[in-house]
Design brief:
Helix content: 40-55%
Shape: globular
Structural class: alpha+beta
Radius of gyration: 17 Å
CATH architecture: 3-Layer(aba) Sandwich
Number of strands: 8
Number of domains: 1
Amino acid sequence: MTLNEISELKKQIILYGKKLGEKNMSPATSGNISARCADNILISGSGTCLADLSEDEIVLIDRNANLIDGKIKPSSERNLHTAIYAIRPDINAIIHCHSPYASAFAVCRIPLSKPIISENVFYFGEIPVAPYALPGSEKLVENSAKFFAKHNAVLLANHGIILGAKDIKSAYYLMETAETYAQIYLNSMLLGGAKELSKKEIEELYALRCAAKS
């Protein structure tokens, strides 16, 4: 990548980090964003605020999470990001945040799996919960990254949510979708429980998803 291309990618990270902040999905210095940058990875720095990032707070690391360029320490979750990229070559951007509604399910260790919203079935199928591990630890990587073999998003028990997509814009919209689904799920429980889609209706959504990919 050229320096201009790297700068443009950083601007995308800054833009969608700001949007996460505006939607209250990344309070204070929680969460992180990364994007593939040729054979390397751009990632937000440790202790930075996604809603208020600057270009010098986004650093370049290699596939083994070693710092290549930047004056601050990469995010403590960098090893989880690199592990997900290694598993999923189709994922080019990752967002991890502590959005309130999705995180509520994460702390209760309840997967977002009920088929009550067509968009959630279409984009995620389900969002499972990875077992708890200390944030930033190798155990967190071990417990969580493997779910990406079959899923695009994972709740991190007592922590938050992480998801991946083809680019930063798509990852942001998926995060909005997941957070909205969690909010609707919670509200539906307060109203006595949502009516789930039927097996036939779910199969139709999966068929539509397969057609969209072809």
